[in-house]
């Protein structure tokens, strides 16, 4: 008599193995885990820990004290104006993310739909080429372009248009220009991948059903790329919040904006770090910025997840 083995779904699932079930995956993930732990997690924990230390007689003493935070928040919106600087940073970061995302989205759309498929990789390579140069070098280049006697104003003077000279250097507009130049290559890649994932059949179906190009964009392409837009905007906000170089080199440390002549919060941290010996207090200031960035990341994650669910 032949015995017939009963195969249940549970036993079949146990027999079927995928590459992700291999024990070797742990060894392949180990270098990444070590890299993130040593170069990101441990320095972050150390920074948070130092924020609770105290200073006595110009000596840093390990402790667990909330004195640094109490001192900071006691004058958060008055003497130190850290609160106003934080609002300034949020304003600059949100507006920068808005303009950077729109600009990068237009470039990504152009590469995806206006460039032939065989040339798209080359076009994308040219779009991200500025990312290969030094960020500081790019900021100094923008100083040369935007300064009062820079390239643009010199050209206007040569054509007798001195009355129309631009004066944006050492303002938050110049800060945004530097940040957009830094963010654009990364955002273009994020948005291009998002657009490339859209099923072209849906676009063709919309066109065949009578939609104009604008209607196909607003009703098909834009909704289906909403997740990429939310992701790119969240990334831009977080990077802009933590950036200090653009605010110092192009914004002049305390660039003029609608909120007044205020520095960004990251610039104030750098200024305190260079002029003070109170490292625990500076670490506490940095911790506050990290908390704000985590909250911004959480808000971006929720928005992107909602966009993904609406798309699906």
Automatic annotation (TrEMBL):
<feature type="transmembrane region" description="Helical">
    <location>
        <begin position="284"/>
        <end position="304"/>
    </location>
</feature>
<feature type="domain" description="ABC transmembrane type-1">
    <location>
        <begin position="86"/>
        <end position="303"/>
    </location>
</feature>
<feature type="transmembrane region" description="Helical">
    <location>
        <begin position="90"/>
        <end position="115"/>
    </location>
</feature>
<dbReference type="InterPro" id="IPR000515">
    <property type="entry name" value="MetI-like"/>
</dbReference>
<keyword id="KW-1003">Cell membrane</keyword>
<feature type="transmembrane region" description="Helical">
    <location>
        <begin position="220"/>
        <end position="241"/>
    </location>
</feature>
<keyword id="KW-1133">Transmembrane helix</keyword>
<dbReference type="InterPro" id="IPR035906">
    <property type="entry name" value="MetI-like_sf"/>
</dbReference>
<keyword id="KW-0812">Transmembrane</keyword>
<dbReference type="GO" id="GO:0005886">
    <property type="term" value="C:plasma membrane"/>
</dbReference>
<feature type="transmembrane region" description="Helical">
    <location>
        <begin position="122"/>
        <end position="140"/>
    </location>
</feature>
<protein>
    <submittedName>
        <fullName>Spermidine/putrescine transport system permease protein</fullName>
    </submittedName>
</protein>
<feature type="transmembrane region" description="Helical">
    <location>
        <begin position="179"/>
        <end position="199"/>
    </location>
</feature>
<keyword id="KW-0472">Membrane</keyword>
<dbReference type="GO" id="GO:0055085">
    <property type="term" value="P:transmembrane transport"/>
</dbReference>
<comment type="similarity">
    <text>Belongs to the binding-protein-dependent transport system permease family. CysTW subfamily.</text>
</comment>
<keyword id="KW-0813">Transport</keyword>
<feature type="transmembrane region" description="Helical">
    <location>
        <begin position="26"/>
        <end position="52"/>
    </location>
</feature>
